[in-house]
Amino acid sequence: MKRLLTALIIFLAGTGNGLAAVWEKNCEGCHNGTVAPTKEELLSQHPTPEDFLDAVKEAMREEKMPPGLKYLAAIKELFGRLPVKKAHAENSHGKVHESDEYSKYKRYFTPLPTLPPIPADNPLTPEKVKLGKMLYYDPRLSRSKIISCNTCHNIALGGDDNVKTSIGHGWKTGGRNAPTTLNSGFLKVQFWDGRAPTLEEQTKGPIQAHVEMNATPELVVRRLKAIPEYVELFKKAFPNDPDPVNFENVAKAIAAFERTLNTPNSPFQRYLLGEENALTKEQKEGMKLFVEKGCIACHNGPVLSDGRFHKFKSNNDTGRFRVTKNPKDKYLFRTPQLLNVALTAPYFHDGSAKTLEEAIRHMAEQELGQKLSMEEVRKIKAFLESLTGEIPLEARTVPILPPERQ
C-alpha cells in the first residue's frame, strides 16, 4: 500500500491542469505493469464495465487500491458506458425491488478523492512530505520552543485540540476554535474567515501570530539553518533552490504534508462506493434527514463543505468583515467541513457547542428554522459519526526530530 501511495504522489506531482484523458491523468501512473496491472492487462481480465467495477471494489476492500479515485469516469472512458447498476433483485415472490431504499440519496454526496488538488508551484514529493511532517511536529518553530503545529492541530485527536479556543504563546488565546487539519487540502479557503486562499498562506499565519507561536520568519530560518540535518532535508526537498532553507519553503513543506492528511475508508465513504451494509439503518435514516432537512445545501462536496461564507451570529466576532471591511460580510463564516466531525468537539467558530447533539439542534433552529425531535437529532448524529475515516498511521506517528548542533 505504501508503495502504491508513493507512486501516486510521484505521478500526481508531475501532472498539470491539462485536459488529459482520465486514465492517463489519474490511473496510468500506478497501472504501469510494475505497481499495478496495465490497462491492457485489466481489459483482458475484466472485459465488461460491470466486471471492471467489481474488480475495483475488491481491490479497495483488500487495500490494494486507494478509495476515492475517479474510477467510474475511467470505466466510462475505457468502455464507452458506465456499469449497469445492480440496484434491483428478485424477492421471494419474483417481484423486483430496490435493494437499498436509501441509495437514491447517494447522488447528493461526493466520495473523497485520494488526494486534494496539488498546486503547480508546490508539487507533492516524498522528500517534501517527510520534511513537512517534521516541521509540523517541531516546537522549535515557535518562539517559546514548546508549541508546534501539532499542539493545536493534534493529528491523533482528529486534527484539532478539543478545547474551546487554543492556548498559545504566553497562555494567550485567539478567540476562535481550531479547525481540523485533516482533509484541509480540499477546502477552497482556509481559516474561519477565509483570509488565506491556500494551505501555504495558512501555514504562515499561526507561526507568526502573537497569540499562537509568536515567531518571525527570520527567527524560524535562523534556527533551522543551525540544524545540519534540516539543511540537508531542505536541499533534498527543494533541489533547485540555491538557498532552500527559507520561510516560503517552510510553508510549502508543511502544506505538502497537510495535503496527505486525508481520511479514507469511513463507513460513509465505503457506502458511497457500493458497500451497502457499511451504514446501519439508523445512519441511513440520518443521511436521509440530513438531505431532506436541508443540511446538504451548505454541507456538500467531498468534505461536506461548500467553501462559502454564511451568516452565523454567535457572539461579537464579526467574521469575514474583519478581513474585507465590507459591511455585507459581517458575521459571515466559512462552512466547516464535517468529515471526522465526531472527533472535533467543541463546535462552531467560538467553540460554543460542547456536543454534537447541541450543534445539530442549534444549526437546525438558527440556519434552517426547524426544531428537530430527539429521535431526529440522534439519527443525524449517527450519520455524522459514519463520516469518521482512517487517520493515516504514518502521519500520526511522531517523528524523531533532528538535534541542534552541539
From TrEMBL:
Keywords for the protein's UniProt record, in alphabetical order: Electron transport, Heme, Iron, Metal-binding, Oxidoreductase, Peroxidase, Signal, Transport
Origin: domain of life: Bacteria
Domain Cytochrome c: 127-235, 281-388
Pfam families, per database record: CCP_MauG
Main location: other
Gene Ontology CC: one annotated term: cell envelope
GO terms assigned for molecular function: cytochrome-c peroxidase activity; electron transfer activity; heme binding; metal ion binding
Localisation per UniProt entry: Cell envelope
Annotated signal sequence range: 1-20
InterPro entries reported for this sequence: Cyt_c-like_dom, Cyt_c-like_dom_sf, Cytochrome_c_Peroxidase/MauG, Di-haem_cyt_c_peroxidsae
Protein name: Cytochrome c peroxidase
Organism annotation: Phorcysia thermohydrogeniphila
